[in-house]
Q: What sequence folds into this?
């Protein structure tokens, strides 16, 4: 079924397409308010790690993993904040539909990058504490947990609806 045209009422809710887009954008920005503190705490943690006294003693693998995780957290931060910046810059352009769809894509990308960064951070800490086998198992379990909870479950529900 095609979405209602601007000015017509939606069948599932008593709202126009414009009202629906306003609601969708508001919901998206509220969801980002939940995700942003997590990425900010992780990013702050990663920024102070090199100033730890033990940092010069880490292995090449740990140094590389740290840097990749830092870049993932940076990219996640950029993607999760971008919808707010896009809305602020474009809000008078009367193209809220495009803003909502682009913001949704950025939010999903940001969450995927955040999951990867959090997995990398857990992997880094685990590598400092345990041996390679434990590191691989913990990283796989954490990544699988994010994949299932953040993406697999909701996508499965969407596919089951159709």
A:
């Amino acid at each position: 079924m095609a979405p209602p045209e601007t000015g017509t009422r939606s069948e599932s809710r008593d709202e126009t397409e414009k009202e629906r887009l306003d609601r969708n954008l508001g919901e998206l920005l509220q969801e980002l308010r939940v995700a942003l503190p997590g990425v900010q705490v992780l990013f702050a943690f990663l920024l102070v790690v090199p100033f730890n006294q033990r940092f010069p003693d880490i292995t090449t693998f740990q140094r590389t993993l740290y840097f990749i995780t830092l870049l993932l957290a940076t990219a996640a931060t950029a993607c999760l904040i971008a919808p707010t910046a896009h809305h602020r810059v474009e809000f008078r352009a009367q193209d809220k539909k495009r803003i909502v769809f682009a913001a949704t894509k950025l939010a999903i990308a940001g969450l995927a990058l955040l999951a990867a960064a959090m997995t990398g951070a857990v992997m880094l800490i685990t590598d400092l504490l345990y041996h390679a086998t434990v590191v691989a198992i913990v990283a796989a379990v954490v990544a699988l947990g994010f994949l299932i909870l953040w993406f697999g479950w909701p996508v499965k529900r969407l596919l089951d609806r159709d």
Remarks:
- Residues 1-7 have pLDDT under 50 and may be disordered.
- Residues 96-129 form the longest helix (34 residues).
- The chain has one domain: 17-161.
- Residues 17-161 form one domain.
